[in-house]
């Protein structure tokens, strides 16, 4: 009889692990503190004057190098969940109609407990106990597929070696500004600057609606310097930086909102691709182990599933 499996984190790494486990005849349950599919491939839905507008405020695109990831991407492409976006590079790929489309496609095959933050894990002789507030979930095997800083905190008591490896990773933050303008800006679809690391005309991506919608990412250094500031103040400053860096004619947006990514991009990755302790039925995966790319998260989860079943 196969052992029950719980995966904490339903982003790309956790769902990649789940998909490979499913291919090998297993059906894990997943838990995620987010309200819906996305992780750092998240999409924000906003009502602007009665129209629903989507902003890809996390990862803007991804690239494909490894054949295992290419196989998955080709499957998403066949069902229209991804498309090429040459404005970001000849090899850039985006989700359609939003960046979280591949995550949604994978999540549909599993029971995912959204809006469920696991705040403590404990293990007895045979079972992992996952605490979320006053609720306890149980599973015989546990996978931790969350950012390094969160993994370090969660695993300190039960897996100090894994926790120490996660604690050694440093992630750079990112403030993301989402804006809609009434008039089109005289700019290309993607731009880079000094205080802004990246800005993209989100509405120019395949499958998006009409409108002049932009996502603007602050640089890691700027984000760190302003990490704890009031969100509205950050929005004003970041918008000013955008116009200063691009020299576009200043416009007041008809909508603006910001999101703070505390753990946007991990550093100090030195592998291995995944961590597995068979004696404790505990695995860890995530892009922070091998590189800050969507593909890295996918490969980490895929590799952990292999380790768990071979």
SSE order and pairing:
Layout (H helix, E strand, L loop, with lengths): L4 E4 L3 H12 L5 E3 L12 E5 L2 E5 L11 H12 L3 E3 L8 E3 L5 H7 L4 E2 L6 E4 L4 E5 L2 E5 L1 E4 L3 H8 L4 H8 L3 E11 L8 E2 L4 E6 L10 E7 L1 H6 L5 H16 L8 E12 L7 E4 L4 E4 L8 H16 L1
Parallel strand pairs: 1-2, 1-11, 2-7, 11-18
Antiparallel strand pairs: 3-4, 5-6, 8-9, 9-10, 12-15, 12-16, 13-14, 14-15, 17-18
Helix pairs in contact: 1-8, 4-5
H/E element order: EHEEEHEEHEEEEEHHEEEEHHEEEH
The proportion of strand residues reads 25-35%
Number of domains: 2
N-to-C CA distance: 16 Å
Task: Briefly note the CATH topology name of the largest domain.
Answer: FAD/NAD(P)-binding domain
**Overall pLDDT:** 94
Content-based structural category: alpha+beta
Q: Identify the CATH homologous superfamily of the largest domain.
A: FAD/NAD(P)-binding domain
In DSSP terms (H or I, runs of 4 or more residues), the helix count works out at 8
The spatial strand order of the largest sheet comes to: 7-2-1-11-18-17
Strand tally is 18
Q: Give the class-level CATH name of the largest domain.
A: Alpha Beta
Task: Profile the largest sheet.
Answer: 6 strands, mixed
Describe this structure in words.
The structure is a single chain. The chain is α+β, with helices and mostly antiparallel strands and about 300 residues long. It has two domains: about 5-40 and about 100-170 and about 270-310, FAD/NAD(P)-binding domain, CATH 3.50.50; about 170-265, Polyamine Oxidase, Chain A, domain 2, CATH 3.90.660.10. The chain is built from eight helices and 18 strands. Strands 7-2-1-11-18-17 form a six-stranded mixed sheet. The chain has a five-stranded antiparallel sheet with strand order 13-14-15-12-16. It has a three-stranded antiparallel sheet with strand order 8-9-10, with no helix packed on it. Strand 9 and strand 10 (about 135-140) form a beta hairpin. The longest helix has 16 residues, at about 230-245. The radius of gyration is 20 Å and the shape is globular.
């Amino acid at each position: 009889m196969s052992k029950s499996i719980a995966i904490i984190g339903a982003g790309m790494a956790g769902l990649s692990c789940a998909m490979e486990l499913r291919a090998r005849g297993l059906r894990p349950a997943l838990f995620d503190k987010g309200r819906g599919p996305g992780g750092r491939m998240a999409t924000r839905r906003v009502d602007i004057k009665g129209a629903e507008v989507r902003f890809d405020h996390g990862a803007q695109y991804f690239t494909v190098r490894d054949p295992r990831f290419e196989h998955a991407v080709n499957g998403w492409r066949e069902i229209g969940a991804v498309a090429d976006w040459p404005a970001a590079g000849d090899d850039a790929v985006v989700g359609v109609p939003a960046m979280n489309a591949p995550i949604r496609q994978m999540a549909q095959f599993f029971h995912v407990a959204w809006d469920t933050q696991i705040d403590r894990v404990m293990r007895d002789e045979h079972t992992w106990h996952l605490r979320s507030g006053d609720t306890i979930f149980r599973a015989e095997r546990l996978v931790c597929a969350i950012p390094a800083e969160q993994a370090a905190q969660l695993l300190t008591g039960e897996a100090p070696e894994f926790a120490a490896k996660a604690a050694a990773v440093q992630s750079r933050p990112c403030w993301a500004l989402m804006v809609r303008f009434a008039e089109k800006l005289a700019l290309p679809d993607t731009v880079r600057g000094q205080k802004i690391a990246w800005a993209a005309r989100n509405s120019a991506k395949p499958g998006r609606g009409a409108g002049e919608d932009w996502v603007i990412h602050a640089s890691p250094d700027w984000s760190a310097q302003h990490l704890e500031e009031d969100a509205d103040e950050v929005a004003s400053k970041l918008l000013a930086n955008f116009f200063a860096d691009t020299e576009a004619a200043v416009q007041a947006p008809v909508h603006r909102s910001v999101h703070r990514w505390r753990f946007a991009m991990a550093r100090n990755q030195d592998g291995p691709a995944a961590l597995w302790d068979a004696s404790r039925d505990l695995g860890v995966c995530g892009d922070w182990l091998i590189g800050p790319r969507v593909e890295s998260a996918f490969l980490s989860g895929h590799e952990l599933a292999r380790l768990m079943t071979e």
